[in-house]
Design goal:
single chain; 467 residues; 2 domains; 3-stranded antiparallel β-sheet; 4% strand; elongated; membrane; ThrE_Dicarb/AminoAcid_Exp; ThrE_2; transmembrane helix
Length: 467
C-alpha cells in the first residue's frame, strides 16, 4: 500500500505532458515521415483507416468533436498526409485526403454506434498516439494495436464495477447528509439498478428505457424502507437515496462533451449530444414519476423534501471526503486505470471542497457549481497530465459528486404534488447547474492547456550556441 501511494505521488508531481497538449494547433512542429505519394492509394487508405479508428474510440469515450478532429489530423500528418478535411459529428467521422486538382480525394468513414464508459481504453489510445508521435511505429503495427484495444474486454470484472457504482451512490448519499442506513440502502439499490440495466442492455433495450427502469428502482426500495421503518421507529430521508440514484444515472451521460462541443465550435454535435442528454434525463424523470404514482396508489406517500445541500462548517470534512470517494468510485466503475484513481479522488475533493466553501458566500448554487467545476478542470487537468491520465477522466469524475440529482428530484416531486411553479423552478435550477458544471470544466481545462503548453526549442538554437 505504501509503495502504491509513493508511486501515485511521484506521478502527480512529475513533469509529463498530456498528449492533447502536444498536438494543439500551433504548439508543436510535426516532423512527419516522407509524404505519401498521391498515387499510392493503398498507403493513403491505410493511414486514413487508422486515423478514423483512433477517432472512433475517442468519440466513443466522450471526447469532444474538436479534440477528436485534432488528434485524427495529427495522426495522419505524422504518417505524411497533410492536406486533409476532417468532419466529426455526433456519431460519424469522415476524413478525406486531397490529392491535387486532377485526382479525386480518398475518403474514409467510421460510425460510432454506441458510447461506453471505459476509461482504460481511452488511456490506451492516448498511449498509442504517443507511440505514433515518439517511436514512429509503422501503420500496420498501429492497426494491430488499435484493433487489440477495441477488442479487449473490460479490465475489471462486472462485480467490481457494480460494487463501485454502489459505493459511489453511498458516498453521494453521505454527501447529501445521509447516515449509515441511508448509505447502505443507496448501495444496495444502485447495485440492483446496475445489474438490471446491464441485463436489459444485453437484450438490446434502448438506453431510454434503461433510464426509466433505473429511475423506478431508485424510488421503490427507499419508499418501502421509509414506510416499514416508520412502523419500527426507524426514520430515513428517502430523498437522499433517490437523489443518489439519480446522480448515478446522470453520471454516465455526456454532459461535459455536449457543452464542450457547443462552446468550442461544434454546435451541431453539441446540440445532438445535449438532446440525447435531455432525452435520457427524461427517462429518469419518467421512471421516478411512475414509481411515485404507483406508491401513492398503494397508500405510500413520501415526505416533503427537506434535505439541503448547504454545508455546515462541522460537516465540511466528512462531505468533502464523501465527494472524493464518490469521484474515485465513479472512475473505478468506468474502468479507469489504477493510476487514475488517486487523481479522481483529488479532483472530487477539490470540487466538493470549493462548493462547500462557496455555500458560506451568498453566490447561489449555479455560480458555486461553476466555480467548483473551473477548479476541477484546472487543477484536476494539471494533475491528470502529470499522472499520464487523459484529462477527460478527471473532468467527468471530479464533477460527478456535484451533479444536481437532488434538484432534479425536487423539481419532479413539486410537479407531481401540485407545486408546479416550484417544481419547474427546481428543474430549471438542475439544468442550469449541469450546464455550469460542464462549462466550468471546459474553461478550467482550457486554462490548464495554456499553462502546460510545451516550450519549443528554436530551430537554430544549437547553431547559435556553437557560435
Amino acid at each position: 500500500m505504501r509503495e502504491y501511494i509513493r508511486t501515485a505521488v511521484r506521478r502527480l508531481t512529475g513533469t509529463s505532458t498530456a498528449t492533447i497538449d502536444t498536438i494543439e494547433p500551433g504548439t508543436i512542429r510535426i516532423a512527419p515521415r516522407r509524404p505519401i505519394d498521391r498515387f499510392d492509394v493503398a498507403s493513403i487508405t491505410e493511414v486514413l483507416d487508422l486515423a478514423t479508428k483512433i477517432g472512433a474510440v475517442l468519440l466513443d469515450s466522450g471526447t469532444g468533436a474538436i479534440d477528436t478532429a485534432d488528434q485524427i489530423r495529427f495522426v495522419a500528418r505524422v504518417y505524411g498526409l497533410s492536406d486533409l478535411d476532417v468532419d466529426v459529428t455526433y456519431n460519424t467521422i469522415v476524413v478525406s485526403a486531397r490529392r491535387g486538382p486532377t485526382l479525386p480525394p480518398i475518403t474514409a468513414m467510421q460510425t460510432v454506434r454506441y458510447r461506453s464508459l471505459d476509461f482504460t481504453r481511452l488511456a490506451q489510445v492516448d498511449r498509442l498516439i504517443r507511440n505514433i508521435r515518439d517511436v514512429a511505429i509503422a501503420p500496420s503495427t498501429a492497426h494491430r494495436m488499435i484493433d487489440k484495444i477495441v477488442d479487449a474486454p473490460h479490465p475489471y470484472r462486472y462485480v467490481v464495477a457494480t460494487a463501485a457504482w454502489g459505493l459511489m451512490a453511498a458516498a453521494v448519499s453521505v454527501l447529501l447528509g445521509g447516515g449509515p442506513l441511508v448509505a447502505l440502502l443507496a448501495f444496495v439499490t444502485t447495485g440492483a439498478t446496475v445489474t438490471l440495466n446491464r441485463w436489459l442492455n444485453r437484450l438490446g433495450t434502448p438506453l431510454f428505457f434503461q433510464q426509466v427502469a433505473g429511475g423506478f428502482i431508485a424510488v421503490v426500495p427507499a419508499a418501502l424502507v421509509f414506510q416499514i421503518g416508520g412502523d419500527l421507529g426507524v426514520t430515513i430521508a428517502p430523498s437522499q437515496v433517490i437523489a443518489a440514484g439519480i446522480v448515478v444515472l446522470l453520471s454516465g451521460l455526456s454532459l461535459v462533451g455536449s457543452v464542450q462541443d457547443a462552446i468550442t465550435g461544434a454546435p451541431i454535435t453539441g446540440v445532438a449530444r445535449f438532446f440525447e442528454l435531455l432525452l435520457m434525463t427524461g427517462g429518469i424523470i419518467a421512471g421516478v414519476g411512475m414509481a411515485l404514482r404507483m406508491l401513492e396508489a398503494f397508500g405510500i406517500y413520501l415526505p416533503t423534501i427537506t434535505t439541503s445541500t448547504q454545508f455546515a462548517a462541522v460537516d465540511v470534512p466528512i462531505r468533502v471526503a464523501a465527494g472524493a470517494v464518490a469521484a474515485m468510485a465513479f472512475a473505478l466503475a468506468s474502468y479507469a486505470e489504477r493510476r487514475a484513481l488517486p487523481v479522481a479522488f483529488l479532483a472530487g475533493a477539490i470540487g466538493v471542497g470549493v462548493a462547500a466553501g462557496a455555500t458560506f458566500i451568498p453566490v447561489g448554487d449555479v455560480i458555486s457549481a461553476g466555480v467548483a467545476a473551473v477548479c476541477v478542470g484546472l487543477l484536476g487537468g494539471l494533475l491528470a497530465r502529470r499522472a499520464l491520465t487523459p484529462p477527460l477522466v478527471v473532468a467527468v469524475a471530479g464533477i460527478t459528486p456535484l451533479l444536481p440529482g437532488l434538484a432534479a428530484y425536487r423539481g419532479l416531486y413539486g410537479i407531481l404534488n401540485e407545486q408546479t411553479l416550484e417544481g419547474f423552478t427546481w428543474m430549471a435550477s438542475a439544468l442550469a447547474i449541469g450546464c455550469a458544471l460542464a462549462a466550468g470544466v471546459t474553461l478550467g481545462e482550457f486554462v490548464a492547456r495554456s499553462l502546460r503548453t510545451p516550450k519549443l526549442v528554436p530551430p537554430n538554437w544549437g547553431r547559435w550556441r556553437r557560435r
